[in-house]
Amino acid sequence: MKQSQMLIPTLKENPADAEIKSHQLLVRAGYIRQIASGVYSFLPNGRRVLRKVEDIVREEMDKAGAHEMMMPALQPAELWQESGRWSTYGSELMRLHDRHDREFALGATHEEVITSLVRDAIKSYKRLPLTVYQIQNKFRDEKRPRFGLLRGREFLMKDAYSFNESFESLDESYEKMFAAYSNIFARCGLDFRAVIADSGQMGGKDTHEFMVLSEVGEDVIAYSDTSDYAANIEMAPVVAEHTISHQEPKPLKKVSTPNQKTMQDVANYLNHELAEGIKAIMFKVDDQFVMVVTRGDHEINDVKLKNLYDADIVDLATEQDTQTLMGSGFGSLGPVGTPKEIEVVADLAVEKLVNVSSGANESGYHYVNVNPGRDFEVKEYADLRFIKEGDPSPDGQGTIKFARGIEVGHVFKLGEFYADKMNASYLNDQGKSQTMVMGSYGIGVSRTVAAIVEQYHDESGITWPANIAPYQVHLLSLNPKKEDQKQLADQLYDQLKSAGIDVLYDDRKERAGVKFADSDLIGIPLRITVGKRAGEGIVEVKERVSGEQDEQEHSKIIEYVQQWFSA
């Protein structure tokens, strides 16, 4: 393609709202443009890159036995009401009304739609297992879209769904998708990890996220320093053992703690370690209030709390709620004297504590010498905290370290979660009705493009992997006004195209410095420059990643390029 005829609007400076490299470079290099907050157009080169990733996804999904289809983005509310997610999915679901005041949602995901289709189309075990997929734009009303393609309100996603006779059959489908995902991200050249994850609003239990390692990732990965164990920090169980103190319990005492608001403030004021205090936080778990107690140096994991109660929604109670229920604001909240109608659950480490401090449910006061079991009752002790660096790895091998990651894929074992709610059943080999068993598998295709840029760039621009780049070769004619340069560049352009090599031909009437800077910014793997030695039939070849340069006779260029890409 001739660059003079293409829409590739490059920029010298970073956009003011672009915080991370992928956002900065994809905009500067003319791959994307924002049309509204969190909504982007893919310009021609951006679409070519997106299609390269889509092609990899399609090839691996087809190899795994999945079949491509297309479902509507506009989904009737009744389907979501059948599954129960209309009321639980939250404010990210984009909802609208048609002219007849019928409620719809713009598809954030398609579990409901595909379940309704399959339950009507498949009635016999002979048609199972079945896996279908689509590549389609999705919509989520992000409260704060940011990081370009990493958190948008409209994005391209591959979503797949498997329908099985049994949980054993689901395991087989899940493993096929897991392997396909591993192949997809490896072929994209990404440094990634598959980590144990939370199913969240999707339902189901067993699930893994595919995380691309990056400092700009919004998710924290807990991994073992000596094994392949890895989990999202929300899901990593704590297996650290806590020994009970041998102190004799002392009498409970209320003390004044004026203007001491945080756990660290109180610890400093009372002259004890942070771990010698307990933290109490009130949550609303579905429709009931629950007080959660942890050690002062630990952080409450609301995902573990949600799983403990098998709840749909877990939110922090408001300060008004705590005032009404406990007579105290956040800064002085504690478990002593909790009304019987409020359940108290505590992290496992709390059970071992003796003579610790806690809020006294009175502004400016705390208790000291608090002892669980004596001074407050705990309904259940459970693992309710986030794992910490240095904790033992849950698999018993090594200790935990943290890394940041960008989620690019997620695989779920949904089980009977949707099929049961939406009456998706089939007749088994004995003619009896059974509920289908489902899996759901998603890849953020546009998000994967951004993740690739996060791992493939330098100070000059993007450094695309060869199989993802919009073109294989960037051909530059430094001075098209000179006839020898124009003729040789035109000749090479035709030869490269005839040889089946994707080439972007910079024939613009721009200064050489502008062309070189744009070429580095765009990031095509191989650059061929037709310059001063055009009359001798000599061109310069430069590798984008290594920066290595070489002069070649134009007659040998096709062979050189073919060998370079086959190496």
Structure explained in plain terms:
- The chain has 567 residues and is an alpha+beta fold.
- It has three domains: 43-237 and 401-447, BirA Bifunctional Protein, domain 2 (2-Layer Sandwich), CATH 3.30.930; 253-382, Alpha-Beta Complex (YbaK protein); 473-566, Rossmann fold.
- It has 13 helices and 31 strands.
- The strands form eight sheets. Strands 3, 7, 8, 9, 10, 11, 12, 21 and 24 form a nine-stranded mixed sheet that branches. Strands 16-14-15-17-20 form a five-stranded mixed sheet. Strands 28-27-29-30-31 form a five-stranded mixed sheet, sandwiched between helices.
- A hairpin with a 5-residue loop joins strand 18 (356-359) and strand 19 (365-370).
- Helix 1 packs across helix 10 (445-455), helix 2 (44-63) runs antiparallel to helix 5 and helix 2 packs across helix 10 (445-455).
- The longest helix has 21 residues, at 167-187.
- The protein is globular, with a radius of gyration of 29 Å.
- The two termini are 25 Å apart.
